[in-house]
Write a structure and sequence with these properties.
3 domains; binds guanosine-5'-triphosphate; 9 helices; five-stranded mixed beta sheet; 23% strand; Spo0b-associated Gtp-binding Protein, Chain: A; 18 strands; alpha/beta; binds magnesium ion; GMP Synthetase, Chain A, domain 3
Length: 422
C-alpha cells in the first residue's frame, strides 16, 4: 500500500496575561483590584476535506500556530481570545502524536475535526484574587502557554488516474516527468514490476495522484504477462491515461495496441473498461510518429481526446495534465472507505509529577505543575506565594521531603528555581 506522509508542528495560542490594576477614580477612595483576565489562546484544529487528495502542502509549510489571547487590562477589561487555526487535511488522514505514536484521530468524513493543540487559558487578573485578608492583591496569573507537539500525518493514497498501455509505451517515463516518482525506466518490456504512485502538482495548486502499473499485453486478463495482478490498483481510479508508443518502435501498431489493451481491460473487469480515458500519443519525437498520430485521430479522434506528447522531452505533457486535472474536477472522487475506524481518543491519566534528584538539586516534572509555573509571574511576590500554595496542595512539598530534600537544596520546576525550606 502507498502512503503519503508528513510531519508538522502545531502550537495552540498562548493565553493572554491577567492584569494587576487597582481602581483609582475620583470619589472612589481606595478602590479594589481592577485587573481584567487575559484572553484564551486559539486551538489548532485539523479538519477533513474531501476536496484534498494528498499531503503535499505539508512539505512546504510545516509549522502552524494559532493566535494568542490578548492580555487583560485595567478597568476589568478582559483580553480578546485568539482565533482558532483550522488546517485542512484530506479525508482519510490518520493523525498521530509523532513522539508517542498515540493515535489522535482518523479523519474519515468530510468536515470531521480534531483539536490537536489546545490554546492556553487566559491568566486571571487580580480582581479574582481578592480575599478578606488581602483586599488589594498585587497578584495575577500569566496566560497559560498553548499546547504544542509534532504530529505525524498519514494518508492512504488512492490513485485518481491510472496509466495503462503496452510494456515500453513510456508509462514510467511519463510519471517520472510529471511527479516526483522515480521508477525504473528501460527499453525492455516489464521494467515495471510493482505499481508506482506519484503526486502531480500543478502550478495552480491543484494536485492528483497517478498510478503507473506494469504494461499489459494480449491475454493479460487471463494472467499473461504481469499487468493483471495490478489491475486492481486501478479499479478505483477515476480516469485512465492510455499511453501509446505512437512511433510503433517495437514493430507494433499503436492503432491496434489501443484496441488490444482496451479489450484486455474489459475482459478483466468491465468497470475498468468503462472508465473515461484520454490518449497520450507518446514518443512523438520519433520517426513515423506523425503518420501514426494522424491514423489514431482518424480512428479514435471522435471518441477520445488525443494528446501528442514526448515523455522523454516533456513536450505536450502540460496540456495533458491540465486537461486531466480539469476532467477530474467533473468526476466525483470515490468515497473513502476506511474499515478500522478509531473511536474517540481517550487520554490516559498520567502520574501528576515526578521528582528526580542529582547532587543536591531536585527536579520536579509534570505537565500540570509546569503549567502553573509558566502561568506565574515570578517577579510578583504574591504570585510566587500562590504557586507555593499550589505546590503544597498537589503534595509536591511532602514528596520532596520523602525524596530526601533538605533545607538549602535547590528545587527546579521548569524555569522556576528556588531553595527548599522545610
Ligand atoms: N524517444 C522516446 N523514447 C521514449 C519516450 N518515452 C519513453 N521512451 C523510452 O521507452 C522505453 C520504455 O520506457 P518506460 O517508461 O520504461 O516504459 P513503460 O511503459 O513504463 O514500460 P513497462 O514498465 O515495461 O511497462 C525507455 O527506453 C524510454 O526511454 C518518448 O517520448 N520518446
Ligand atoms: Mg514502466
Amino acid at each position: 500500500m502507498f502512503y503519503d506522509k508528513a510531519k508538522v508542528f502545531v502550537k495552540g495560542g498562548d493565553g493572554g496575561n491577567g492584569c494587576v490594576a487597582m481602581r483609582r477614580e475620583k470619589y472612589v477612595p481606595r478602590g479594589g483590584p481592577w485587573g481584567g483576565d487575559g484572553g484564551g489562546g486559539g486551538d489548532v484544529i485539523l479538519r477533513a476535506d474531501e476536496g484534498l487528495r494528498t499531503l503535499v502542502d505539508f512539505r512546504y509549510k510545516r509549522h502552524y500556530k494559532a493566535d494568542r489571547g490578548r492580555h487583560g487590562e485595567g478597568k476589568n477589561k478582559h483580553g480578546v481570545s485568539g482565533d482558532d487555526l483550522i488546517i485542512r487535511v484530506p479525508a482519510g488522514t490518520l493523525v498521530r502524536d509523532a513522539e508517542t505514536g498515540e493515535m489522535l484521530a482518523d479523519l474519515v468524513s468530510d468536515g470531521q475535526e480534531v483539536v490537536v493543540a489546545r490554546g492556553g487559558r487566559g491568566g486571571r487578573g487580580n480582581a479574582h484574587f481578592a480575599t478578606q485578608n488581602n483586599k488589594a492583591p498585587r497578584l495575577a496569573e500569566k496566560g497559560e502557554p498553548g499546547e504544542e507537539r509534532w504530529l505525524s500525518l498519514e494518508l492512504k493514497l488512492l490513485a485518481d488516474v491510472g496509466l495503462i498501455g503496452f510494456p515500453n509505451a513510456g508509462k514510467s517515463t511519463l510519471i517520472s516527468k510529471v511527479s516526483a516518482a522515480r521508477p525504473k525506466i528501460a527499453s525492455y518490456p516489464f521494467t515495471t514490476i510493482q505499481p508506482n504512485l506519484g503526486v502531480v502538482r500543478l502550478k495552480d495548486d491543484r494536485s492528483f495522484v497517478v498510478a503507473d502499473i506494469p504494461g499489459l499485453i494480449e491475454g493479460a486478463h487471463a494472467g499473461t504477462g504481469l499487468g493483471h495482478e495490478f489491475l486492481r490498483h486501478i479499479e478505483r481510479t477515476r480516469l485512465l491515461i492510455h499511453v501509446l508508443d505512437t512511433a510503433g518502435s517495437e514493430g507494433r501498431d499503436p492503432v491496434d495496441d489501443f484496441q488490444i489493451t482496451n479489450r484486455e481491460l474489459t475482459l478483466y473487469n468491465p468497470v475498468i473498461g468503462k472508465k473515461p480515458q484520454v490518449i497520450a500519443a507518446n514518443k512523438i519525437d520519433l520517426d513515423f510518429a506523425a503518420q501514426n498520430l494522424q491514423r489514431l485521430r482518424e480512428n479514435y479522434g471522435d471518441k477520445y481526446e488525443i494528446f501528442p506528447v514526448s515523455a522523454v522531452s516533456g513536450s505536450g505533457l502540460d496540456a495533458l495534465i491540465y486537461r486531466v486535472a480539469h476532467l477530474l474536477e467533473e468526476i466525483p472522487p470515490e468515497p473513502v472507505a476506511i474499515v478500522e475506524t478509531q473511536g474517540p481518543v481517550v487520554h490516559t491519566l498520567q502520574q501528576r509529577f515526578t521528582i528526580t534528584h542529582e547532587e543536591g538539586c531536585f527536579v520536579v516534572e509534570g505537565k500540570e505543575i509546569e503549567r502553573h509555573v509558566a502561568m506565574t509571574d515570578l517577579n510578583l511576590e504574591e504570585s510566587v506565594e500562590r504557586l507555593q500554595r499550589i505546590m503544597h496542595r498537589m503534595g509536591i512539598d511532602s514528596a520532596l521531603k520523602d525524596a530526601g530534600a533538605k533545607e538549602g537544596d535547590t528545587v527546579k520546576i521548569g524555569k522556576f528555581e528556588f531553595e527548599y525550606v522545610n
